[in-house]
Amino acid sequence: MTTSHKRIDADALPTTGTRISVRYGAARWNERPVSVADAMDFWSFAAGAANVIMQLSQPGVGHGVVESKVDSGNLLKHPWKRARTTFQYLAVAVFGDEDDRRAYREAVDTAHRQVKSTPSSPLSYNAFDRNLQMWVAACLFVGLEDSYRMLRGPMTAEQSEVFYRSAWTLGTTLQVREDQWPPTRAEFDDYWNQACLSVSMDDTVRGYLQDLIDLKMINPLLRLPFRRLLRFLTTGFLAPVFRDALGLSWSPRQQRRFELLFLLVSFVNRFLPPFLRQGGSWVLLGDVRRRVARGAALI
């Protein structure tokens, strides 16, 4: 099978201090103080598929997921379980305590020990590679920051630094060290833009992700009413570098519809109490703690 790669050009990168990102609408809702927990409203889960695409656009991560022999965590074979465990990881990393993170780290490490390249793999990878884990954590941070800005508008420079520092547990809950995170928000932009130079997908990973956004893994009765919406939301939450790698088109008209949608969503969000906006994360965290108490499997 012929394999084609799509990779970004260095000339497409923005200047220092400007991150490759989605385009936002007008500022709407800002508040103090801020942390990554403020981005964990249930609306943010609409960007979940986009974040998976971002993560898998690094070849080591993409092939690690696609070739993984851990079928119990395969997104296309067990979509609901994988969705639960992914969102539980976010809940643990953002809202959990050290005991929660230690328990989840041990569970994930057990699965990651089986995720490594074989002689037939097109490239070498290992799930314990801290640089690959740093990329995944960076994608999670970018996704949550984008969601925050879509829902509440831009942050001040001070807020941005506090928000960024609060997000480090997205990586340190696994093997990422604190000193791997760029020390300032501006330096993170430089790391991100440089890392995006390595964005590349071959036909294997691209096909896997196309099946994801086409909802090939769920019942056709559920797929039909939600497939177009998921593709629209997913494409809207992706920066051009990721859209291009996956071969997704996006027009100015679609961008305006996307911004209008989140203008409405952000307005509604202002009137929802925290227990409704973030209740799902606390339910997932509670499930983790119950599983640990019973000695049940976390993933």
Automatic annotation (TrEMBL):
Pfam family, one: MPAB_Lcp_cat
Annotated GO MF terms: oxidoreductase activity
Domain (ER-bound oxygenase mpaB/mpaB'/Rubber oxygenase catalytic): residue spans on this chain: 42-265
PANTHER family according to UniProt: BLR2777 PROTEIN, ER-BOUND OXYGENASE MPAB_MPAB'_RUBBER OXYGENASE CATALYTIC DOMAIN-CONTAINING PROTEIN
Protein's name in the database: ER-bound oxygenase mpaB/mpaB'/Rubber oxygenase catalytic domain-containing protein
Protein species of origin: Mycobacterium cookii
Lineage per the UniProt record: Bacteria, Bacillati, Actinomycetota, Actinomycetes, Mycobacteriales
